[in-house]
Design brief:
The chain has eleven helices and eleven strands. It is α+β, with helices and mostly antiparallel strands and 311 residues long. Helix 2 packs across helix 8 and helix 8 runs antiparallel to helix 9.
Length: 311
């Protein structure tokens, strides 16, 4: 099938390697991105106090890749956010990711707020795409940092990838700060009214129907790949998503891991794992990335033959 949204084809081609709930979560997030609706999702905390993805059922840190410069920068911010969640009882962390050619086609913000629900702590996240260039992203970050607790001095783009902005929420919600910085009543009203949560619920229902029908539809006949693509295309908004490069990589890599910001901003979009752990891992000897089939282990590095890969 030929279409103008080429990133969808490889993504749909890999969904059978995942649970329906995980594949649906990924697709629902992408649907919201193409409509510029904030994507709400949660991380929980495991017994070690580490961030845990409920949909992918793994520690977030276990699927972060640091094999390139941006990945190495972003893991610094991830570690800072993790440390903050372990020491703080309330507040919000803001992570700006400016657009970067070949990596992130769209600027993005993740806002993570600590909350307690029925005595259980969790991290409520919202991923927000902004159609702005990298310099504008830096300008917004500087303004938001003026309201922060940690008061980072942001002078260049690389600092945004390594430096989360920590906001205190006592007496003022983080959204009040953002309304002062970014003039977008439609965006903030979606969050204040909870409409973004309802949109995510509906998107999840749509995505689950697609993947369930791919196994057997109401007539007892499985959907073809082309049928799935047509249904998905009919649901998409008019804008691009934040990680088309990641979607395109999926046909070769089975969507298994990503940089810290990728993992944090889509929480299951790049997570690929099974009962043995991550499907992608680095060889300790040659430092190259191995990719194993779902549900299977490999005895040696696929590049240098070393048995030190650990699986």
């Amino acid at each position: 099938m030929s279409n103008e949204r080429a990133e969808i084809t490889p993504f749909l081609g890999t969904w059978r390697n995942k649970t329906i709930s995980q594949a649906a979560e990924e697709l629902a997030s992408y649907l919201l991105e193409t409509k510029r609706i904030p994507d709400p999702y949660y991380f929980s905390f495991d017994e070690d106090g580490d961030l845990f993805s409920p949909s992918a059922r793994c520690k977030v840190k276990d699927v972060i890749r640091t094999v390139n410069v941006i990945g190495q920068q972003e893991v610094i911010a991830f570690d800072a956010i993790t440390g903050w969640t372990k020491s703080a009882k309330s507040g919000a962390a803001v992570w700006f990711s400016p657009a970067s050619e070949g990596v992130y086609p769209v600027s993005k913000i993740i806002i993570s707020e600590l909350e307690e629900n029925n005595g259980v702590r969790r991290l409520r996240n919202r991923a927000i795409l902004l159609d702005i260039d990298a310099e504008k992203c830096l300008e917004y970050a500087r303004q938001v940092s003026g309201y922060s607790i940690n008061r980072p001095f942001l002078t260049h783009l690389e600092q945004l990838r390594t430096t989360p902005i920590i906001l205190g929420t006592e007496g003022s919600c983080w959204i009040n700060i953002f309304e002062e910085v970014i003039a977008d009543d439609v965006l903030w009203d979606l969050i204040k009214t909870g409409q973004d949560i309802e949109e995510k619920r509906q998107a999840l229902c749509q995505a689950q129907r697609i993947f369930t029908s791919a196994l057997t539809d109401e007539t007892g006949v499985r959907l073809t790949q082309d049928d799935m693509e047509r249904r998905v295309l009919s649901m998409l908004g008019t804008r691009s998503g934040s990680c088309p490069v990641l979607f395109l990589k999926s046909i070769f890599q089975s969507i298994v891991s990503g940089s810290a910001f990728e993992i944090f901003s889509a929480h299951s979009l790049m997570v690929g794992s099974d009962k043995y752990g991550s499907l992608e891992f680095e060889c300790p000897r040659c430092k190259r990335t191995n990719r194993r089939p779902h549900g299977r282990l490999i005895p040696n590095c696929q590049h240098c033959g070393s048995s030190e890969v650990g699986c």
